[in-house]
Amino acid sequence: MEHFDLIVIGGGPAGYLGAQRAAQGGMKTALFEERALGGVCLNEGCIPSKTLLHSAKVLDYAMYGDKYGVSADNVTLDHGAVIQRKNKVVKQLVSGIEFTMKKCNVSVFDKRALIKGRSENGFVVLADGIEYSARNLLIATGSSPVLPPIQGLEKALESGFALTNREILDLQSLPESLVVIGGGIVGLEMASYFNSAGVKVTVIEMLENIAGSIDVGISDILMKNYKKKGVEFKLPCKVTGFDNNSVTFEEKGESKTIEASKVLLSVGRKPNIKNIGLENIGVYTEKGAVVTDDKMQTNISGVYAAGDVNGKSMLAHTAYRESEVTVNNMLGKRDFMRYFAIPNVVYTNPEVACVGETKQTAELKGFEVKTAETSMRMSGRYLAEVEGGNGIVKIVVNAKDNRLLGVHLIGSYASEMIFGAALMIEAGMIIEQIKELVFPHPTVCEVIREAAFLL
User: 325 Cβ partners below 8 Å, 6+ apart?
Assistant: First the structure.
């Protein structure tokens, strides 16, 4: 039986980065991934979707270039070519991870791993009938799409009428119409791409607002932008069934039906905790997720869980940091995971980005807050590059000590600016300190400083 210092189960962001950091720290490390290195993020999530969305953005620039004095005739999008480019990008990045694992001397097994039990050396993992042991385990098995109990859904998935994020990113041709069930990040990003590509898109969402927990005002602005582009929104509405290329839903107590060529199911994700042997060593789970402390350790000493499987913050960048906290603690370095300044981004056009508290969440936590909001049109660069844009920045501040609690953006470059806001919150900066920062000019990020001067 081969023995390791660490066995990682799952090769997504938490898994492969955790394996890399452990090996770099001198630990003999094994990584088990039965499908593909990179996990959902790289193969059927973050990276593929952003590749598609960039193609859509290029198309939008070309189609509406006359606003900027640039005209082009017969502009079209070749969806097949977009998918080919997506596959090329994914292949290149997966190859990069494979190279890194090899360079760091991580033993990678493309096998399904099952935690069998304990041993005198720590823990035993079984894969293809072969046993391996390790002093430490990192559970990084990720998540999978939630499949709600909707009448006809199973048949719709089998026929290819209904798709999850995995299948829709491999469609070889554009559907005439697409119904997106779920107005969260995944649903909105795919609605954005297919709308730009010329597909008739309808979004059905159970809540009264789209984009989940983001600031309600920014959610409204995003929806107005996409209504102008032709996306239809049905909310709050509940989908009740699938039948004959149609979707049935309830709207204000009335049953309605809408036809579609394809349906994207994007109502959330659930941690992958089944069939990996957690019960064999007594790992505690709650509400379908592995329970971890701020060191990412489970209730079993030497067993850690990072990424979507612990259900804390299902974002790739959260997974990266959680894996680093995990490995640091394995190596005897004191490190703790903090979740109050994790940025979130919706890569639509316009982009949405936020970090920290909204006014509502801050008040629920007992903060007395004050807020400020300013238009991105105050930025010379934004005016120069975004014709007719309605982007804004909104900041949330603790009224007692003027400490920054939250920043919320909608507009160009929001995804690239939000890290600065996250740094401000992580550092506990107060408004007076933000006012003293020198922002480059002309940039869109200057609007954050302008908002600070409104308080």
Answer: 294, 295, 296, 306, 335, 336, 337
The structure's pTM equals 0.96
Question: Per CATH, the architecture of 344-452 is what?
Answer: 2-Layer Sandwich (3.30)
- Side-chain-side CA neighbours of 107 within 13 Å: the count stands at 13
Under DSSP, the state recorded for 257 is: E
Cβ contact 11:38 at 8 Å: yes
Given a contact cutoff of 8 angstroms between Cβ atoms, the answer to whether 305 and 318 are in contact is no
- Identify the architecture of domain 2-144+270-330 in CATH: 3-Layer(bba) Sandwich (3.50)
**Catalytic site residue from 3, 317, 408, 441:** 441
Active site residue 441: yes
Say how far apart CA 249 and CA 399 lie, in whole Å. Answer: 44
DSSP 166-232: HHHTT-SS--SEEEEE--SHHHHHHHHHHHHTT-EEEEE-SSSSSSTTS-HHHHHHHHHHHHHTT-E
Q: What are phi and psi of 245, to 5 degrees?
A: 55, 35
- pLDDT means over runs of 10, the chain (455 residues): 96 98 98 96 96 97 94 94 98 98 98 95 96 98 96 96 96 97 97 98 97 95 97 97 95 96 97 98 98 98 98 97 98 97 97 98 97 97 96 98 98 97 98 97 97 97
